[in-house]
Amino acid sequence: MEFNDDPRSHTSIDASYRAVMSIPNFRILWIGSTLAFVAGAISQVAMPIFVYDLTKSASLMSVILVVQLIPQAILSPFAGVLADTFDRRKLMLASCAIRAGAVVFVPFATEAWHVAALSAVVGFGAVVYGPSEMATVPTIVKPAQLVTALSAVQVASAMTRVIGPALGAGLIALSGTDIAFWCQTTILVLAFVVLLRMRLPVNEASQAFADTRAFGRYLWHEAVEGLRVVWRVPIVRAVCGTEALWTLSLAALSVTTVVYVKEELDLGDRSNLAFGALAVCISLGATAGALVARGIEARGKRLFLMLVGYFAPLLFVPAFFDPPLPVLFVCWFLLGFADAWLVIAMFAYVIEGVPENTRGRVFAIWHGIIALASVGTFAFVGWLTEALGAQTTYLLVGLVVSLGSPLLLWASGALESVRRPRVPHHLSPSPSTD
């Protein structure tokens, strides 16, 4: 099959969504990734419910969720390098196949360790998909179309964060968690079939690494260089630190919320549906927040977006006072809304703060730090939920994250660096000769 999507082949470029979606390889990637995103979003609802119903323990539930994160914590620093070196299409296909092969067996698990083992396989399969996808986009669209293409990917991600939890909650309410996992498996298989049709330019980088030892040295060197960039740039260092702290909120959303809706709200058979509905509220809020944030950021209010996002976990606090369920829906919607502001601001600061040739590694390391922090915070929140109860856990997590994040931003020197951005050397005024 002839490859016709060379970004350099045209000088007059149509950068509209319609033009970008008309590129065969991008359209295939977009559809395949959307399906993969939906599958992952279903699991965000189905897995915590399945594990809690199996174990009746918040601590065990958090441990099993942590197991899925361990491969990401270990391998993420290298995932960006792999995506820059090997056939990205094959990496994405392998990711879908591995996850589908593990998820299909989850309904048959009867012991906690069965679920833990399958979760580890799912985590291993997922670690390379994101870097491979994002590294593929610039190779199949023209440079002038890149922003539009990335926007289309983000729109798909936002849509699936609504569709996936809603679909998962509906299936669970209809026929339990088993059908949700089989639906997830089916969608991953569909993603695999769709991505099979994609044809990418030959990645010649892998030709330089026939020597396994040479590639090992290269992989280590590039990963270490990415870690150095993360540490040296104040805003990147701060973002990674605050995101690590924010994993307490993610743990509360996954672990504490399951316990809260099943034990505190006394909803009976409606508890699973309520958990899914809360996940949908967060996703709807994130979608709305992303749409609103574009205009605010364009007016130079990026720091405002970030600070509002950092205080968003205070929306956990009302859960301490036994509010009606509609109040929780509103709080979770606003939490997603403000979190979208934070994510957009952080991505913009990181992209501007690091050299172009290190961004893939920096983003991979960023996600690796989140996964590594989650290993500890998910276990801690599971223990805290069992020891103090869901409502007290919400209160503590909300206060610690919302107050600790701005403090980290200030202590790292990042607040000063974004308020008074350093002028690049080539733009600095020449010294006075007077």
3D structure, described in words:
There is one protein chain. Helices cover 77% and strands 0% of the residues. By secondary structure, the protein is mostly helical. It has two domains: 185 residues, MFS general substrate transporter like domains (Growth Hormone, Chain: A, Up-down Bundle); 194 residues, MFS general substrate transporter like domains (Growth Hormone, Chain: A), CATH 1.20.1250. The longest helix has 32 residues. The protein starts with 16 loop residues before the first helix and ends in a 15-residue tail after the last helix.
Helices and strands, with pairings:
Elements: H1 17-21, H2 24-55, H3 58-85, H4 88-103, H5 112-126, H6 129-140, H7 146-175, H8 177-196, H9 212-232, H10 234-264, H11 271-298, H12 302-310, H13 325-353, H14 359-388, H15 390-411, H16 414-419
Helix pairs in contact: 2-3, 2-7, 2-8, 2-10, 3-5, 3-6, 3-9, 3-14, 4-5, 4-6, 4-8, 7-8, 7-11, 9-10, 9-14, 10-11, 10-14, 10-15, 11-13, 12-13, 14-15
